[in-house]
Amino acid sequence: MHTQACIFDLDGVIVDTAKYHYLAWKRLADQLKIDFTEKDNERLKGVSRIASLNIILEIGNMHPDDRTKEKYAALKNEWYVDYIKRMTPDEILPGSIEFINELREAGIKVGLGSASRNTPLILKRVGMRNLFDAVADGNVVHKAKPDPEVFLTAAKMLNTDPRFCVVFEDAVAGVEAALNAGMICVGIGSGKILTKAHFVVPGLAMMNIEKLKEIERKARI
Ligand code: B16
Ligand code: MG
Fold first, then answer.
1. What residues have their beta carbon closer than 5 A to ion ligand 2?
2. What is the pLDDT of residue 221?
3. Do the beta carbons of residue 78 and residue 27 sit within 8 Å?
């Protein structure tokens, strides 16, 4: 097997924080009298905080100045943090810990690549920080997915050639970021949405080393 490192997205792959992002954005949209639906929320997945706000403002056809935008983003984050500071390890998505432990036992490095600036708080709340050899998140990376910066940074931290990294991603922008980094990408979710991923599974509960080997073989053909 060539794979030397696996890099995981956080929101939607390891934990389901998308629901909290939605509740907090919805609260802001309601205050601004913008009609923001769960379907609209799909467009926000994997996208940075300010880019998410821009999508919501676009839906409402609003054009506030930069200072007002920062105020809105800060308000949303305050409400979001209120949710995530109450998270528990019960909110880790099924199969995540088992698969990561299997990788670690096989000597494969494990990294995290997330757009979220709240990554440290989430990892602390769910007690997973020690399972990652490297964490590249929105605090150290500045270009939003689909730019490959977040995954290339994780690979560098792990001292691994990007060609030997496999990324697990639930967002379209994240899959593109992984491919732009020259990595193999396993989509988490639906093959109808994540059409560019090398392989798609519904969740990490479907993953193990044997499956990883099979995916790697198919992706390299
Ligand atoms: P924050 P991921 C992303 O996390 C979320 O999918 C996206 O909805 C969010 O806007 C972004 O993080 C920034 O999060 O506001 O906490 O900095 O999927 O890259 O783990
Ligand atoms: Mg995600």
1. 9, 11-12, 46, 170-171
2. 66
3. no
